[in-house]
Amino acid sequence: MGVGVGVGATRVDARLVLDDTFAAAAVAAPRACGEGSLAPRGGADGARQGDAAGAANLYRLALHYADDAASTAYAKSGLNEARATLANAHLQRARHEEKERRWSDAVASYAKALEGRPDDPAVCERLANALREEGLDLVRAAQLAELAVSRAPRRAANRKTLGLIYAAQGVVAKALEHLERAVELDPADQMASRAVTALRERRR
């Protein structure tokens, strides 16, 4: 039975569609599990992405037709799991692109990962850093890095990225504030230490 239901569908029709949708999602979701890697494109990795996206769409449809608390909870749980799988896959792709210094691609992939993990400060920070490296939108980069710092103020990488973005914007005082804090939190970070030294020299 298909999943389309007309405007005048009965409650029974909706229940049948809901059952069909859950069954289809159950088929797609297991194939989307596992590492979920998207790098390189194609093959089994591309199939995982498609399955996760398909499962997410099916669970969204199920939410539309859910007519009781149990069905709603099940659909929400499935949708969250599918979104997490997609986010992890985009995150792995972004890291691969980051290593290759393909910053525009990394920006796109980190942005997609952030859609699935909007409360993750580490993803905010990595997207901010990719934007800084790309150099096209430092305002957005600063906003994301500030959000990362507000959520995890003791994570050195968040402070460093925000400081480097401020430095790129020419806001030396704020840049030093965050970079010095980054060095306090992680004294072994040579990049942050060098940035602090360079900024102190600039102020002289």
Descriptive keywords:
single chain, 204 residues, mainly alpha, Serine Threonine Protein Phosphatase 5, Tetratricopeptide repeat, 2 domains, 9 helices, disordered N terminus
Summarize the structure in words.
The protein is mainly α and 204 residues long. It folds into two domains: 9-101, no CATH class; 119-204, Alpha Horseshoe (Serine Threonine Protein Phosphatase 5, Tetratricopeptide repeat). 78% of the residues lie in helices and 0% in strands. It is built from nine helices and no strands. Helix 8 packs antiparallel against helix 9 (190-203). The longest helix is centred in the middle third of the chain and has 31 residues, at 69-99. The protein starts with 10 loop residues before the first helix and ends with a helix. Mean pLDDT is 81; it is low at 1-14 and 30-48.
Strands, helices and their partners?
Blueprint: H1 11-32, H2 43-65, H3 69-99, H4 103-116, H5 121-134, H6 138-151, H7 156-169, H8 172-185, H9 190-203
Helix pairs in contact: 1-2, 1-3, 2-3, 3-4, 4-5, 5-6, 5-7, 6-7, 7-8, 8-9
Quick take:
With 204 residues, the chain is mainly alpha-helical. 78% of the residues lie in helices and 0% in strands.
Number of helices: 9
Low-confidence stretches: 1-14, 30-48
- Based on DSSP secondary structure assignment, what is the total number of beta strands? 0
Global geometry: elongated
Radius of gyration from the alpha-carbon trace, in angstroms: 22 Å
The percent range for strand residues is under 5%
Order of helices and strands: HHHHHHHHH
Question: CA-to-CA gap between the ends?
Answer: 75 Å
Number of domains: 2
Average of per-residue pLDDT values: 81
User: What's the quaternary structure here?
Assistant: single chain
Structural class: mainly alpha
What is the percent of helical residues? over 70%
Largest sheet: none
